[in-house]
């Protein structure tokens, strides 16, 4: 068995947004999830239960419900994103400990998300992280092709001139770390705090023992704070 990759060579730090830069138990994604269900319900004129089944089916098959709705039903990405991200961000609280840990990392810090830049901006403002990142690659930059599509990671690497062998990726979904690991990144799976109740499906919590996951943490601030040049 090979040893997990380390961080001494890393000069680019890549972070997912939702459930990675803020705690899972805030359940902010629950609000987005509910808005997605409403959108599917209204657009397809189906009941809530059928809409829920469609929503989750597309999420599994296409990477995001939006991609499924665009591909199969001609939905406008702008309309979809504007609707589903119209949520209350107030449950998010400033996290100066995590902010300080991110700021101290050597090199560039980037966000790679299946959300929109507007959503990123709102989240970072609440967390107090607005000045900590050097760039954002969102679902629009990805051409609406979400993670874990290999072409999305490739476009991200090109757009931001990232050498994957000198990068680390932080994610809350293990399936979204498969391609980064294949590309040479050091991978970190951010899992829920075991003492808090989280709203996740079982498959979303799988993968912490996968070969493409180098490290697992339920305390991102503590994990980053513990990194030192190797």
UniProtKB/TrEMBL annotation:
Is this entry keyworded Ion transport?
no
Q: Would I find Hydrolase among this entry's keywords? A: yes
Keywords, comma-separated and alphabetical: Hydrolase
Q: Which residues form the signal peptide?
A: none
Q: Give a GO molecular function annotation for the protein.
A: hydrolase activity
Q: Which CDD domains match?
A: HAD_5NT
Name the InterPro entries for this protein: HAD-like_sf, HAD-SF_hydro_IA, HAD_sf, Pyr-5-nucltdase
Gene3D superfamilies from the UniProt entry: 1.10.150.450, HAD superfamily/HAD-like
Q: What protein name is recorded for this chain?
A: Putative hydrolase of the HAD superfamily
Which species does this protein come from?
Bradyrhizobium stylosanthis
């Amino acid at each position: 068995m090979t040893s997990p990759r380390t961080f001494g060579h890393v000069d680019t730090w890549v972070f997912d947004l939702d459930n990675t830069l803020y705690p899972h138990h805030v359940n902010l994604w629950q609000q987005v999830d509910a808005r997605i269900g409403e959108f599917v319900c209204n657009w397809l004129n189906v009941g809530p239960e059928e809409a829920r089944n469609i929503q989750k089916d597309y999420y599994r098959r296409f990477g995001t419900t939006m991609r499924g709705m665009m591909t199969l039903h001609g939905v406008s990405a702008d309309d979809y994103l504007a609707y589903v991200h119209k949520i209350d961000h107030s449950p998010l609280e400033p996290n100066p400990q995590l902010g300080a840990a991110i700021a101290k990392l050597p090199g560039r810090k980037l966000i790679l998300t299946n959300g929109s830049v507007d959503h990123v901006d709102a989240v970072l403002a609440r967390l107090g992280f607005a000045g900590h990142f050097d760039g954002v690659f969102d679902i629009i930059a990805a051409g609406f092709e979400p993670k874990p599509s290999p072409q999305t990671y490739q476009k991200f690497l090109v757009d931001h001139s990232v050498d994957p062998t000198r990068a680390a990726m932080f994610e809350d979904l293990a399936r979204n770390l498969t391609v980064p690991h294949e590309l040479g990144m050091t991978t970190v799976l951010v899992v829920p705090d075991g003492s808090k109740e989280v709203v996740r499906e079982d498959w979303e919590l799988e993968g912490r023992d996968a070969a493409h996951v180098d490290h697992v943490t339920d305390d991102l601030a503590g994990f980053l704070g513990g990194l030192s040049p190797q």
